[in-house]
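pasting for the record
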Amino acid sequence: MDPHSRELVWSYGELMSPGDALEQLNSPGCARRMANGATLIADTGNDRLLLISPVGKLMRTLYGSEELPLIRPLHCKLLPSGEILVYSEAQAEVLRFNLAGQPIWRAVLRD
């Protein structure tokens, strides 16, 4: 959405049509526009992150690993280094992905 005109300028997926295939999302929790125009989406219901090009094409899909699973990613933040921090709703933890898109670190959040 353009914040000034409130017009839709770009979208990925279809409203009310959840799924896990190409151009489908399931309960996306967060989307971040990057400096190069790409968009990083936390696809919460599909346990993945999607990197979408400025023209709406899927560039990359990021998943967790067996040791560092990505479960219900809710919020993502791109670091100045290019690495990504992801808050997992289900696990109350933060995962860090390296530039190659691999999970490399986890911090469990405690009360």
